[in-house]
Amino acid sequence: MLTIVSFFFIPTSWAQEGSDWDLDFGDRFELNLDAEFATDMNLNENLAGEISNDSYNTNGTTEPALGQLLVMENLSALLPDSNGTGEDANRHRGANFSFELPPGWKATCDGDRNEGKLTLKGPCTLTSIGWFEDSGVDPESILRQVGKAYRSGSLRFPVLTAEQGETVAVDGQSASSLNVYYRYGGDESQKRLVAWNSPVSGRFFYASFWSCAETWDENLEMFEEVLGSFRDERSERYVVLEPRSTTLDGWGTILQETLKSYHFKSVATPPNPEVGVKVVMKTHREGGQVNQLASEEIVSLTRGTYDPPRERSLQKQLIDRGYGAAILRRGGAFWVVVKDAEGNWQAISSAAPGTEKGLGTLVPPDENEWYRGLVVDGSKGTTGENASQDQAVIEKDCDPPRQVHLKPMTEVNLTWILDLRDLLDLYSYSQEGTDPGSFQRAQVCWALLEREGYDARLVTGYEGHTLHPGMWVVVRHPGEEGHIAVKTAVDGDHRGLGEIVCSAERFEGIAYETCLQYSCLHPENGLSIDPGAVRTPAQGRTKSIARSEKL
User: Fold this and answer.
1) Per-residue pLDDT tens for 4-21?
2) Which residues, at least 6 apart from 211, have a Cβ–Cβ distance to it below 8 Å?
3) What is the pTM of this model?
4) What element of type H or E holds 515?
5) How many CB atoms lie within 10 A of CB 345?
6) Helices in 86-177 by DSSP H: which ranges?
7) What CATH fold (topology level) applies to the domain 2-32+80-235+274-301?
8) CB distance 204 to 114 below 8 Å
9) Beta bridge mates, 160
10) What share of the chain is helix, strand, coil (3-state, %, to 5)?
11) SS3 assignment, position 19
12) What are the residue boundaries of the structural domains of the chain, listed by start?
């Protein structure tokens, strides 16, 4: 969304007959950016250079080296070849872009890769192509602002039309256009304006075309040929990542649970980027008549993109937990990507402002645009004009679970097993009804076992696990590394709380240390049971009576 923050009109002296005059008026508006567009790592110290090779120490502070950056060497293998590679040698090159120059036209370029202007002059025609950093600029919105500047009441054109034109093909995408026609003092002129974003370089381009009326059609065709041949070169930071094929397997589930274990307490709000739109009119009078009339549109970035505090803090949080995390951007949108042990990537959509729980959600692999973009410099935000003084503050709600591969008990302690079986047989569940996956019953069973001094965990499956979705209890045998599993009873069973099983699939999964931990992460299924509050039968009651006790 674009918000007008100022409008100004600056006339200059033009009363003298026979002299030039300039009228300068324009808009400056903010870009309210929407970041919405919008998991076990074997990391080592060699990852210190992985996302950016120009991070440095500033004011004695550094970020953790482990997993901080995602090796530019690794990412460079994912960089697609430049669009300009292998092109005709006769193509004219600008600031990291190229195009075919029409015969008889001359080109001059001013600026650098980040910002500049290309001027093309031909027989009775003038074209300019400008560019600057794309901070989330919407081309159609920019062109509407240009049209508004032309309609300024300060000029009072006797005749003026500024209408949206047809889309124009530029560099494999559709660009927006605006057709402007105006008449002033007996003279007339028309312009064709075209604007587009270039994701591969992170730049915004705008082109302006003017021609004498008698050669308009011929020169317009050449202008369209220039745009049709335009090729922007990919930035060295533009990457196309290979997404993970499965989102919520074991690794992905742990990553998602880690995100749910925290929340943003506060997030700094950096100023929105600003783009200025200005139209400069030039004319010459002789004998009281205007015999020359020209206009120039000036579009410039007056305030650039600030370091994204939400994504930067999320990246740091993941790095601190041992993940390899980077930040990608497209225009004004930023997001975090995380690399798994196989070298594939998982994109994360950061939690929206005002979200009470969680830091973000995982993006499915079929959302291709989340896996391509510009890698944000790892040092950005620590220095410079655009540094965020206050990053987001993250608070921890609970510990995330762990993915486990537990060892089954190999030697049977008959006394211990029988005591555990008798304890399970002493009780039954108080509520009959559906409990898909036994999530609630497993929590009740876990609470009793913990209450009686057993070392128990709640375990669930994940996508691809044979027992997914479901929950069960795993109990550690005292004095050794072996474990046994408890399969909870279901409706219609008359065997108490559950039975002891040793099937291999029950010793692998996502392990939660307590019911409170699981309930914090899954309030929709969690019972938040405190084992200390679980009632047990009064001493002296017989086993048969104790079996009738309800939990």
Assistant:
1) 323 332 222 233 333 333
2) 124, 125, 126, 219, 220, 223
3) 0.79
4) helix 515-521
5) 23
6) 139-150
7) Protein Transport Mog1p; Chain A (3.40.1000)
8) no
9) 182
10) 20, 35, 45
11) coil
12) 2-32+80-235+274-301, 63-75+239-271+306-396, 402-546
